[in-house]
Amino acid sequence: MKVSISHKEDMKFEAKTEKGSFIIDCPVISPIEYFLAGLITCTASDMIVIPKNSNKEVTDLVVDGEVVRNEDYPRKFNTLHLDYNFNSDADDTTAARWVMASLETYCSTVNTVRDTTAISYSITHNGKKILENEKMISGGGMKIDLGEIESCPS
Questions:
Q1: Total count of domains within the chain
Q2: Domain CATH code at residue 42
Q3: pLDDT tens readout for residues 42-55
Q4: Is residue 5 assigned to a domain?
Q5: Distance CA 110, CA 83 (A)
Q6: What mean pLDDT do residues 23-45 have?
Q7: Mind listing the pLDDT tens digit for each residue in 64-123?
Q8: Residue 8 in domain
C-alpha cells in the first residue's frame, strides 16, 4: 500500500492512493477524524460483506464511534467505543459473531490500534440491544474462520 500527500493551498491536502485520490480539508475535518472515519468504515464494510457470504443481509446499518484521547501529546486513542445498530435476517447470536469477526480478525484499522487502545462495543440488532459495553481483549487478535470474504481493500 502506498499513499502520497501533497499540499494544495491553505490547509488543504490531496491524498493519492494507487486507486484514486481525495482532498483532506484541515481543520474542517482533522486527520484524526479521517482516521476514525476510516476505522469505522473498515468494520462497517465487514458488516455488509460477512453476512453476504452466508446468504444473509444487513440493512439500516449505522456504526457510531466515540474516542477518548490522551490530554498530552502524542494524543493517542485511550478508549474507543463502537456502537453497532443494524437489522438482518439472522438470529442475534449470528449477528454478534459478525461484529466479533470484524473486530477480532478482518478489520485492519481496529487491529492496528487494539494493542494501545481499550476497545468496547455495543450491538443493537433488529431493534433490540443484544450486547452493551462489551470489552474487546487487547492483543494480537484471533483468527475467526469464516472462509474467504470480499471486503474493502485494506
A1: 1
A2: 3.30.300.20
A3: 999 999 999 999 99
A4: no
A5: 14
A6: 95
A7: 999 999 999 999 999 999 999 999 999 999 999 999 999 999 999 999 999 889 999 999
A8: no
DSSP bridge partners of 123: 84, 131
Burial degree of 114 (CB within 10 A; 0-12, 13-18, 19+): buried
Domain of 59 in residue numbering reads as 29-135
Write down the pTM of the prediction: 0.86
Residue 150 resides in a domain: no
With cell 461484529, the residue in question is 99
Confidence of residue 136 (pLDDT cuts 50, 70, 90): confident
Domain assignment present for 23: no
CA of residue 66 relative to chain centroid, distance: 11
Cβ atoms of residues 50 and 22 within 8 Å? no
Cα 2 to Cα 92: distance, rounded to the nearest angstrom: 39
